[in-house]
């Protein structure tokens, strides 16, 4: 029950963390200034956005930097914030950086007038755009290798993907890579379903809708079980890719998990969910905190950031992390085995199953990422 209460707190935080940290930004020339405009889904998702906050705050706490953080309610509000920052930092003697912490700001960033002075920099995170106006740079963590690896590891049962929205370039790339990895190992099977929560950025901020989707997914399988008593062929794994909305998935999975409902599994997304989700065999960890620290430290040293930098799995900025608390006794962890006479029987997977598969598939996943870059 403690785990469920903890996740309820996470869900409440995701729904309520919507206030600005700095309504008014006061600039001076005493120290360098960093202004972070968070994604509209904002901190409180216990994943990507929180890791970004951790990276920025940890670095700024250890350096002589003025940190301002803002969470806008819309793209229009974000534009006003950017316009004001450009005006307020004009002519500052010390360095000023603004971080747009989400690729939903790509169009906004591309429309900014060139920033001519070298003391200012606008960093757009999670974008692979290379042709931005002068003074605007981009950085992202490449997900192709790690998503391919996660797809390959998921291929032992049907898999479903829940994504925030259609048309998000990074989400579509990650979905393709996961599907490619899955199909490479699933012996002719494809990802069962790709479900989008919204047609716009709202898909990142609707844990209640994600909760309802997961509820429907499992109840449809329950109906099959009621008529067949067949848990084994009802197994599936769910990949959630919807920022703060993912908390709705995790909350429902924890509520529904029991000996009678142990045919489902979920992938931890962005952060390591080991010890928090017993039905999660592994997590996809995206180290945006390390990426932010690298970008900021380079900038503070007086160096110019490249027009674009992609941080890779090969460099340690993304990985699949196994969950040592995964329940290997559940139905999801069952597998068919052939005996010496060629007859099949059901048994539990060995506890080193995913670790061994990780080692088997990792080099293939890294090569996939390199091929995709060409």
Describe this protein's structure.
By secondary structure, this protein is of the alpha/beta class. 38% of the residues lie in helices and 21% in strands. The chain has helices spanning 2-16, 48-61, 75-88, 106-110, 144-153, 169-185, 207-228, 246-256, 288-300, 353-373; strands at residues 33-38, 66-70, 96-101, 120-125, 136-141, 159-165, 193-198, 236-241, 264-266, 268-270, 282-286, 308-311, 318-322, 334-338, 344-348. The strands form 4 sheets. The chain has a 6-stranded parallel beta sheet, with helices on both faces. Strands 7-6-8-9 form a 4-stranded parallel beta sheet, with helices on both faces. A 3-stranded mixed beta sheet has the order 10-11-13, covered by helices on one side. Residues 1-23 have low confidence and may be disordered.
How would the blueprint of this fold be written?
Elements: H1 2-16, E1 33-38, H2 48-61, E2 66-70, H3 75-88, E3 96-101, H4 106-110, E4 120-125, E5 136-141, H5 144-153, E6 159-165, H6 169-185, E7 193-198, H7 207-228, E8 236-241, H8 246-256, E9 264-266, E10 268-270, E11 282-286, H9 288-300, E12 308-311, E13 318-322, E14 334-338, E15 344-348, H10 353-373
Parallel strand pairs: 1-2, 1-3, 3-4, 4-5, 5-12, 6-7, 6-8, 8-9, 10-11
Antiparallel strand pairs: 11-13, 14-15
Helix pairs in contact: 1-8, 2-9, 5-6, 5-10, 7-8
